[in-house]
Amino acid sequence: MHEETPRVELTPAAADLLRRLRATHGPLMFHQSGGCCDGSAPMCYPEGEFRTGASDVLLAELQVDGVPEPVTFWMSRSQYEVWSHTRLIVDVVAGRGSGFSLEAPEGVRFLTRSRVVGT
Fold first, then answer.
1. How far apart are the C-alpha atoms of 88 and 116, rounded to whole Å?
2. 31 CB contacts (<8 Å, ≥6 apart)?
3. In angstroms, how far is the first alpha carbon of the chain from the final one?
4. Closest by Cα among 82, 86, 5 to 40
5. How far is CA 67 from the centre of its chain?
6. CA torsion sign, 101 to 103 to 106 to 111?
7. pTM of the full structure
8. Which of 32, 78, 99, 110 has the fewest CB atoms within 10 Å distance of its CB?
9. Contact at 8 Å (CB) between 93 and 101?
10. Which residue in 87, 115, 109, 104 sits closest to 41, CA to CA?
11. In 3D, which of 68, 64, 59, 52 has the Cα closest to residue 112?
12. 23-60 burial by CB neighbour count: b if 16+ within 10 A, else e?
């Protein structure tokens, strides 16, 4: 079954940053937990470094030009229930994010924007 509206998409700035991070760190993944503060932002890790399980939902396998493998995007199941009616748009903004996310030393952070989709 083909989904017309992708659940997750990247802005050009986010795709650019992922290409740079991939060159340095290898295959990548995102996880968005929905916790307080930085936990509500998508966190970028080396693929497999963040352990996912039954409490997480795989929302997308993002194809990024110049990145040989998909970048997986996971979300905690409880957070997914809140965001299930939206399309998530991963963007990059200036500022300091979490020290655990790979982009932290770059002086930028990933940010999720959303757009409501038809129900």
1. 9
2. 42, 43, 45, 50, 52, 56, 74, 75, 76
3. 17
4. 82
5. 15
6. negative
7. 0.88
8. 99
9. no
10. 109
11. 59
12. eeeeebbbbbbbeeebeebbbbbeeeebeeeeebbebb
Three-class SS state of 107 = coil
Secondary structure (H, E, C), 8-60:
EEECHHHHHHHHHHHHHHCCEEEEECCCCHHHHCCEEEECCCCCCCCCEEEEE
Token pair for 48: 């497999």
Please write the tens of the pLDDT for every residue from 53-102. Answer: 999 999 999 999 999 999 999 999 988 888 888 899 999 999 876 668 99
Which pair of tokens denotes residue 64?
A: 């990024």
Phi, psi of 56 (to 5 degrees): -120, 155
